[in-house]
Amino acid sequence: MISSLQILPYLPLEHSEAEQFLWEQFRLHYGTKVSSQRLMELQERFKKERLDPLYSFFIALEGEEIVGCIALSPYDQRISSLRLRYTEGFVGEIGRCYVKESLQRQGIGSFLFKQALQRAQEIGYETLYLHTHPFLSGGFDFWKKRGFQALFKEEGEWQTIHMERGVED
């Protein structure tokens, strides 16, 4: 574990390099699976989400260097295969969880998730949702260890695994 690690809420004026870290990690993990048009759409979505008072984005700092990030946002009903699942209750979505590759498996992701979970409790979310993909090395196992259960897996190019857990679990 890194001794000087800090988990902080993202403040655009103080942590301007956080967005660069986020999109570098995104490209590293998704490569050419995401078109440049889709990447621009995701970047625009990130800008809009930041305006929502229920949106939280945390960064992990090792000294002055950003080494990880995670987002918590209200689930927005955009996934058609989940439309009937989340019709009641207050659901938060975990996303954009990245840790610098050379520092993975040192507890940074766990600390980021603990901060997001604490924020989810403060907001009053009842359920947390996320999705991952088999090509994201270690993602599925990481989330299972944090209490998420697989709901179902969509086949096709992305093989999206939808997962959830209670906030108080």
From TrEMBL:
Please report the organism this UniProt entry assigns to the protein. Wolinella succinogenes (strain ATCC 29543 / DSM 1740 / CCUG 13145 / JCM 31913 / LMG 7466 / NCTC 11488 / FDC 602W)
Which Pfam families does its entry note? Acetyltransf_1 (PF00583)
Q: Which SUPFAM superfamilies does the record associate with it?
A: Acyl-CoA N-acyltransferases (Nat)
PROSITE patterns recorded for this chain?
Answer: GNAT
Keyword terms of this UniProt record = Transferase
Presence of the UniProt keyword Transferase in the record:
yes
| UniProt cross-references to InterPro entries, sorted A to Z | Acyl_CoA_acyltransferase (IPR016181), GNAT_dom (IPR000182), NAT_camello-type (IPR050769)
Recall the GO molecular function terms of this protein's record: N-acetyltransferase activity
Q: Which Gene3D superfamilies match?
A: 3.40.630.30
Highest taxon listed in the record's lineage: Bacteria
- Name of the protein: N-acetyltransferase domain-containing protein
Q: Where is the N-acetyltransferase domain?
A: 8-168
The record lists the lineage as: Bacteria, Pseudomonadati, Campylobacterota, Epsilonproteobacteria, Campylobacterales
Q: Does the keyword Isomerase apply?
A: no
